[in-house]
């Protein structure tokens, strides 16, 4: 650790307001010893060492591209390290396969290690060892065993229920229960709360904390520093593949933690909106879509309107209808006073409506294409004779890289080789390059680090200064409050009420959301 980082760690500890949470004293469950990994000439992990105590929740922190997922993959056995050792409960598992490590109780659950949606909860829990009788699956025994497992983890759902019908938080709990049922010693959770609403997040965190009492340890990767401060007993910060700081997490302050992660102070961006009436950019009249509407909503020049509501209650569906991904069954949409066709994504884009999905992997990028191609997809810069203009494409890469600090090898690198947060930045860059009249943003900062989040907020603000109208979904009430001019609250597919600029506090937004969650 460099002296300046030691000082920063010391400052961060001194500034901390929270009670000091001592790290557990038992011998470590996991030891990572001097691990190296390179893709090409540049090391992604450069002599990383850390240890995780028994029953500890160990925060693994770092900017986008710092090496957190790579380290998780090396520990779990998805990726081989070039050098270094992994010890689980004192045993060197470095040369063991992924399955052998799992059998010893080491699991990695990423946001996308999802469940089998069309199978029941019980099948998901017990696969691949379903109880059998005379060679056939014993369904009664299966649901009995699974039911007991659910009960012992206070998850109140029938084991016969289709797993795909669970909400996002319960899906993640299901994956964790499956791991714990297999006698997990250590579970790595890679951004477990990304995209969850505040109450779901809190619920999941409390539940994870309760699991440590059973002796399970966790490595917890998150870009939400408040979560790490609340939950973790110990932490390691990675910077450019090296350990920049580590220690007991309980007394780290929020600012101190941000400084350790980025290596400098992070200046929080707070947008100054204006209550003055603005000429309309998008006028939505009587818009109906499957499960929602009619919606009447006008967003003016340079205005940001936040949409609040539970999954399935309208906000996502409205954005997807405007983006041409769900069919509008009636109503109309005007953009700059002209009727907009929104029957397909292409029509919506032609009308000046650009959409950022929260599902980066499923529908955001084309994994096998380069960064430059992804930035220009559907909007190729042309030159005389309609040939694609390579220097135009490179200009876009340069702008995205500078504006959002994207960690990449170069414009021709495949986007799938970027870290998750850096992929998100490229997707946002693609939208901004289209110079849309209307931006539809569903969780624009999902998976991005503390510094990049502020960059992205500034870019959204810049867009509003050019007159762009923005509809925003953000689960974090603080993020919402910092960006929007007003909020509309959805219930059962309709707009139930709005919060104007005067009443727009973080608490009011959180309350609006939790009222909906309780009803
Ligand atoms: N298969 C790969 N080929 C080439 N480079 C890769 C590959 N996988 C990861 N990298 C590079 O390794 C670096 C670390 O990526 P990693 O995904 O570990 O970061 P991270 O800390 O998890 O970031 P994030 O917070 O954005 O998820 C990045 O620069 C990434 O581009």
From TrEMBL:
Gene3D superfamilies: P-loop containing nucleotide triphosphate hydrolases
UniProt-annotated stretches for the region Disordered: 1-25
Occurrences of domain ABC transporter (ranges): 30-265, 261-517
The protein's Enzyme Commission number: 3.6.3.17
Cited SMART domains: AAA (SM00382)
Composition-biased stretches (Basic and acidic residues): 1-17
Keywords, in A-Z order: ATP-binding, Cell membrane, Hydrolase, Membrane, Nucleotide-binding, Repeat, Sugar transport, Translocase, Transport
GO molecular function: ATP binding; ATP hydrolysis activity
Domain of life of the source: Bacteria
PANTHER family linked to this entry: CARBOHYDRATE TRANSPORT ATP-BINDING PROTEIN MG119-RELATED, D-ALLOSE IMPORT ATP-BINDING PROTEIN ALSA-RELATED
Protein name, entry field: Putative Ribose import ATP-binding protein RbsA 1
Protein's organism: Mesorhizobium plurifarium
């Amino acid at each position: 650790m460099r002296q300046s980082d030691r000082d920063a760690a010391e400052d961060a500890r001194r500034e901390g307001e929270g009670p000091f949470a001592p790290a557990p004293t038992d011998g470590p469950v996991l030891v990572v010893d001097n691990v190296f990994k390179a893709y090409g000439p540049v090391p992604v992990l450069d002599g990383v060492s850390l240890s995780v105590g028994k029953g500890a929740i160990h925060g693994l922190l770092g900017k986008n591209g710092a090496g957190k997922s790579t380290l998780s993959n090396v520990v779990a056995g998805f990726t081989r390290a070039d050098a270094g050792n992994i010890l689980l409960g004192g045993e060197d598992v470095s040369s063991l396969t992924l399955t052998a490590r799992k059998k010893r109780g080491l699991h990695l659950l990423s946001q996308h290690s999802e469940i089998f949606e069309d199978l029941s909860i019980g099948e998901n829990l017990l696969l691949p060892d379903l109880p059998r009788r005379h060679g056939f699956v014993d369904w009664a025994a299966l649901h009995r065993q699974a039911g007991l497992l659910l009960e012992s983890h206070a998850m109140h759902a029938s084991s016969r229920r289709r797993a795909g019908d669970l909400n996002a938080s319960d899906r993640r709990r299901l994956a964790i229960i499956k791991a714990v049922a297999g006698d997990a010693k250590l579970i790595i959770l890679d951004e477990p709360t990304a995209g969850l609403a505040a109450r779901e997040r809190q619920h999941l965190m409390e539940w994870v904390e309760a699991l440590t009492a059973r002796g399970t340890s966790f490595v917890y990767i998150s870009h939400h520093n408040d979560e790490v401060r609340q939950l973790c007993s110990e932490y390691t910060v990675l910077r450019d593949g090296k350990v920049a700081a580590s220690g007991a997490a309980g007394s780290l302050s929020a600012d101190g933690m941000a400084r350790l992660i980025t290596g400098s102070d992070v200046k929080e961006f707070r947008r100054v909106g204006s209550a003055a009436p603005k000429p309309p950019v998008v006028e939505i009249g009587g818009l109906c879509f499957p499960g929602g509407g009619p919606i009447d909503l006008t967003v003016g020049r340079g205005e940001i309107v936040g949409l609040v509501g539970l999954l399935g209650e309208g906000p996502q569906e409205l954005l997807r209808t405007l983006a041409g991904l769900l069919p509008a069954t009636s109503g109309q949409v005007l953009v700059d006073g002209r009727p907009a066709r929104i029957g397909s994504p292409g029509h919506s884009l032609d009308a000046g409506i650009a959409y950022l999905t929260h599902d980066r992997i499923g529908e955001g990028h084309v994994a096998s294409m380069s960064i430059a191609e992804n930035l220009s997809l559907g909007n190729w810069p042309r030159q005389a004779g309609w040939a694609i203009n390579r220097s135009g494409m490179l200009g876009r890469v340069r702008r995205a890289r500078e504006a959002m600090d994207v960690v990449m090898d170069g414009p021709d690198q495949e986007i799938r080789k970027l870290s998750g947060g850096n992929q998100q930045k490229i997707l946002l860059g693609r939208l901004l390059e289209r110079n849309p009249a209307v931006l539809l943003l569903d969780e624009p900062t999902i998976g991005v680090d503390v510094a990049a989040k502020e960059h992205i907020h500034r870019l959204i603000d810049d867009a509003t200064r050019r007159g762009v109208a923005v509809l925003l979904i953000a689960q974090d009430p603080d993020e919402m409050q910092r960006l929007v001019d007003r909020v509309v609250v959805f219930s059962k597919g309709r707009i139930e009420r709005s919060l104007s600029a005067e009443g727009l506090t973080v608490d009011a937004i959180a309350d609006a959301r939790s009222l909906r969650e309780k009803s």
